Amino acid sequence: MTVKCQGPTRAKGSLSDALETHPPGSVSQKEHIVSDEITREQLKDEIIAALRHSRGVSLAEANNEDMYVAVSTVVRNLLADKWIETREDTLKGNTKAVGYLSAEYLLGTQLPNAILNSGVPQKVEAAVKELGFDLNAVEDVEVEPGLGNGGLGRLAACFIDSLATKAVPAIGYGIRYTYGIFRQEFDKDGNQVERPDYWLYKGSPWEQANYRREQRVGMGGVVVTTKDGKREWKPAWQFRAIPYDYMVPGYESGRVGTLRLWSAKAVDEFDLLTFNRSQYEDAVKGQTWAESITKVLYPEDSTYVGKQLRLEQQYFFSAASLADAISLFYPGEEHPDMTTFPDKITFQLNDTHPVIAIAELMRLLIDKYGYDWDTAFSITQRTFNYTCHTLLPEALEVWDAKLMGELLPRHLEIIEQISDWAAHDQAKHGASPEAIERMRIYSNGRVRMAYLATMAGSHVNGVAELHSQLLKDITLKDFADLYPSKFTNVTNGVTPRRFMRLANPRLSELVTKTLGSEEWLNDLEQLKGLEKYADDPQFLKKFAEVKHQNKVDFADWLKRTQGVEIDPNSMFDTMIKRLHEYKRQSMKLLQVIALYNQLKSGQRDINTFQARTVIFGAKAAPGYAMAKLTIRLINNVARVVNNDPALQGKLRVVFIENYNVTSAQRIIPATDLDEQISLAGKEASGTSNMKFAINGAVTVGTLDGANVEIRERVGAENFFLFGMKVEDVEKLDGNYNPRSYYESDPDLKGAIDAIASGMFSYGDPNTYKEFTENLINKDPFMALADFREYMDIQDKIEAAYQDKQAWTRMGVLNTANSGFFTSDRSIQDYLDRVWMTGSLPQHK
Ligand code: 26V
């Protein structure tokens, strides 16, 4: 089904309208029901009431969609008291709160997670069943809010889950994009086609518009000097920022946190504050702009493009969030004592996207609340911390000062001042003039957001040990030399509730039975207790059965949704992540083609060949031509390989259409071999590697990002390592000659030549010319240099897989030793190293 770009505007009386005027808590006006005491019968009554009151249907009339909304409403009601109480306790201010500022949240579906955290999951399940519905089918109705691109957005979602589970007083702030990450389709030639993702087309029972906390955000205009010599910004346009609140239920903490996503709306009348006639047209234009600000998520995630609308988005949500936090902690106060602000809330900047918040807080402190520059800067510095998520120079945000000056003239002024202050401070710390020049926040008409965040916040962290080290050694070296104590590492993590308990109920049950309790779900290091069963044939058998059943389920799902058949007895070899050259999907593909050639030529015996299903899932940025060409090629290799009878179905390639959180939850538990094969020094962390390890897949990977730490923990013998190290890459850089590898390795040459011959393009040698030429002549991420080692390790993997018990043992040891990679631990590290705060009492 395709959704038209200009989706229908919300009809009056639609679900979302109803939610705006009648919050779900009011659906059932009956006596108050305490969530954990509710009986199955009461739940059934509540669901029937919700069907009647919010959908206007009887149980007999209800379909899965009605049921989805009704169950969601009831589960929300169960969580409402804890939500309110958590908010009240957060605002008491006894424990410093955390404000997580992120332009992306890749949430995944809400209902299964809310049921899990409702306190009464079995009763909900039973109630739905007794009403004659299949809960899985009901849950399948939900469209996931795809409000993010990849790792960074999913990490934000894992973090708010852990914040709630650890009872940390926190608010996640972000943007309610009307259109999330595009829905990916493949056309008949295998090309990616982007379709708009109008995820709200049926409304969402999980969001609640909160007009009481609406804010105003200005943009454009001029800065004037007032009579008393103060600078004052007169914005040309004002936008309404409407918060939509989402519950973030903690697991077994009795706490429900808040995710507050901002949506832009036009003000009814535009302010003609500074206008003369000629600016009138611009003022009117502001009206139309308003709603476009939060209309769409930018689908680029690796190359910075200085788009004005993107800066508008960034400022819009940063400014609204700051205004919200100030009014939350100083309600009704016109002259709050802002020197206490950093004791009330600490803001984490998720990459540079919200870094403009720094200039906004300075503006408020100086222009609105009357603080002097030094006091304002000290408050600001104590308020913010910054996480960097990349090492690619092309991903660092550097705004054109002219553009920023037109949109945010006062902020640019302030940034200029911070830039001067920074240079001064660096000199005081003994930096050379050259180093000071290199560290300039604002120079040559450009504003470097990472530098601003580094100088105007307290801490800077990378997202894995290696990444944090490389930040200090390369990307932010000058700063690290000068301010070493600012820099720290917080290795990423993932929530085991979603990626183990919900995604892999079979393995969860086995773990719970084996360990004797479910405590591991919020104390993941307890998985260590599985280690002693690694040589227990009974346990290994059960572990292998779980994996096999998951593979059968995945194969069924694939057949149902994409019409593709795969063999659950083959090895499932998976590479799921955004499509980018540095991640090297191309190298995986060359290996597949080389295998194909060997099988066809008889160099490899088809009879002894370990059957493999190679699974890809990846979206490419719409403007990234090489990535899109790679997608096309993967699809066409799949077409040729899968239809070649000579292979007897023993090698299959599948490309999951529209890879997202929901499909990740299906693929990961079914995977035998996980591919983490980026060029060393390029992947900041990776987080799917952690999800795979927890779920008992074995990883083949380079020494990059969090792979390093995963291997250390699960043991070198349970991880297939290959490829150049960061030092090798550095040595090769500058005199790298990919052609020499091409010419000297027959497998490699055979694979590239096969592509160039037109084998995967119906005989047309031109279709993939740019792909092959790029590899032979440039190969910016050195896939050719690592190819031979990659082929060899894959042979070892094939041999290892033959011994099923030994393979299963490796999987068990991956699960048993990956407890460190829970996002609960990441959050604890942030609390200890960055935020210096703690938890509320847990209300079980
Ligand atoms: C970056 C950019 C840069 C250009 C402008 C648009 C834009 C939009 C999003 C992003 C985010 C890219 C950074 C990112 O996703 N990094 C990933 O973060 C994960 C969580 O820390 C980490 O596991 C991955 O290794 C890292 O690539």
TrEMBL record:
<feature type="region of interest" description="Disordered">
    <location>
        <begin position="1"/>
        <end position="27"/>
    </location>
</feature>
<dbReference type="GO" id="GO:0005737">
    <property type="term" value="C:cytoplasm"/>
</dbReference>
<comment type="similarity">
    <text>Belongs to the glycogen phosphorylase family.</text>
</comment>
<protein>
    <recommendedName>
        <fullName>Alpha-1,4 glucan phosphorylase</fullName>
        <ecNumber>2.4.1.1</ecNumber>
    </recommendedName>
</protein>
<keyword id="KW-0808">Transferase</keyword>
<dbReference type="GO" id="GO:0005980">
    <property type="term" value="P:glycogen catabolic process"/>
</dbReference>
<keyword id="KW-0663">Pyridoxal phosphate</keyword>
<comment type="function">
    <text>Allosteric enzyme that catalyzes the rate-limiting step in glycogen catabolism, the phosphorolytic cleavage of glycogen to produce glucose-1-phosphate, and plays a central role in maintaining cellular and organismal glucose homeostasis.</text>
</comment>
<dbReference type="InterPro" id="IPR000811">
    <property type="entry name" value="Glyco_trans_35"/>
</dbReference>
<keyword id="KW-0328">Glycosyltransferase</keyword>
<keyword id="KW-0119">Carbohydrate metabolism</keyword>
<feature type="modified residue" description="N6-(pyridoxal phosphate)lysine">
    <location>
        <position position="691"/>
    </location>
</feature>
<dbReference type="GO" id="GO:0030170">
    <property type="term" value="F:pyridoxal phosphate binding"/>
</dbReference>
<dbReference type="InterPro" id="IPR011833">
    <property type="entry name" value="Glycg_phsphrylas"/>
</dbReference>
<dbReference type="Pfam" id="PF00343">
    <property type="entry name" value="Phosphorylase"/>
</dbReference>
<dbReference type="GO" id="GO:0008184">
    <property type="term" value="F:glycogen phosphorylase activity"/>
</dbReference>
<keyword id="KW-0321">Glycogen metabolism</keyword>
